[in-house]
Specification:
There is one protein chain. With 267 residues, the chain is of the alpha/beta class. It has one domain (7-262). It contains eleven helices and seven strands. It has helices spanning 19-22, 52-65, 89-99, 103-113, 122-127, 139-155, 179-185, 197-210, 219-227, 232-246, 257-262, and strands at residues 7-12, 24-31, 34-42, 69-73, 160-161, 173-176, 215-216. It has a seven-stranded mixed beta sheet with strand order 5-6-4-1-2-3-7. Helix 2 packs across helix 6 (139-155), helix 3 crosses helix 6 (139-155) and helix 4 (103-113) crosses helix 6. The longest helix has 17 residues, at 139-155.
């Protein structure tokens, strides 16, 4: 029952200057075989100040204080082990903000190291993640997610980053998820971000399908997901769903050496 009583949070993360508008958090809980989504809101609801730094800090504080919750977050928690110098994942996380002083220096470092090529982790390839961690469309999420969320959680021993760290029932759990992978697996990977009418139609189609996945949404949350043109609200629902469908597998398990260094991607 330990795995059934935890609150579920799905987080669509952003490292942009408009993070307060682009970070969305959905909160839900499990009722039998169903996931009921209670709220779906942007980060500025949780922060007194609406600048990006304050909103990311508020998200970090939320994770740290929710001792009996699981958070699904949509940014890479690691890089390919072949590209990192540290001997283990924890050292990589601890060293990360010291090695890379900005998102741009992080991207430049790995592009230089790989001669401009982009390499994904094994699990990213297996599960269909669209971008490498230092890709143009993802590098800011990766940088700010690791340096300002994962690093302080690990450094201060405030959460368990699964599956690399063992699950402690007295701490929040954090897993890496991929909304695009979920949509691909459900054969729903269609363009849904943007203001064009066909994108809104696709968002509505995805929202309508969520009930088939045992996700319960009220009409207000459905309308939020459809009207949010960037797709951030919908992505946070998909993040919560990824947590929900993987809850029973989030037990301590034997990892191979690559998994201990690169983690996993849930969908």
């Amino acid at each position: 029952m330990l795995y059934l009583i935890r609150k579920i949070f799905g987080v669509d993360f952003s490292g942009s200057k408009k993070a307060c508008e682009k970070i969305w958090v959905s909160e839900g809980s499990v009722y039998g075989n169903f996931l009921k989504i209670h709220t779906c809101r942007p980060a500025h609801f949780f922060s007194e100040s609406h600048d990006a730094q304050s909103c990311i800090a508020a998200l970090y504080s939320m994770i740290a204080r929710e001792k009996h919750a699981i958070f699904g977050m949509d940014f890479p928690f690691a890089l390919p082990s072949s590209l990192t110098e540290e001997n283990n994942w924890k050292d990589f996380i601890i060293n990360f903000p010291f090695k890379h002083e900005s998102a741009e220096s992080f991207r430049d470092y790995y592009r230089h190291k790989t001669y401009g090529k982009e390499f994904k982790r094994k699990k990213e390839d297996e599960k269909g993640a669209p971008f490498a961690a230092y890709n143009l469309w993802l590098y800011k999420q990766t940088y700010h997610g690791i340096s300002r969320i994962i690093n302080p959680l690990v450094r201060n021993n405030l959460a368990c980053i699964l599956p690399i760290q063992p699950p402690n029932p007295e701490k929040p759990w954090v897993i890496e998820i991929c909304p695009a992978c979920t949509l691909k697996e459900k054969d729903l990977y269609v363009p849904y971000k943007g203001k064009k009418s066909d994108r809104e139609t696709n968002r509505k189609s995805i929202v309508d399908k969520l009930e088939e996945f045992n996700i319960l949404l009220d009409d207000e949350i459905k309308d939020i997901c459809i009207s949010n043109t960037r797709g951030d609200a919908l992505d946070s629902i998909l993040a919560a769903y990824a947590v929900f469908r993987n809850m029973q597998s989030l037990k301590e398990k034997n990892l191979d050496e690559l998994e201990r260094r690169e983690g996993d991607v849930y969908y």
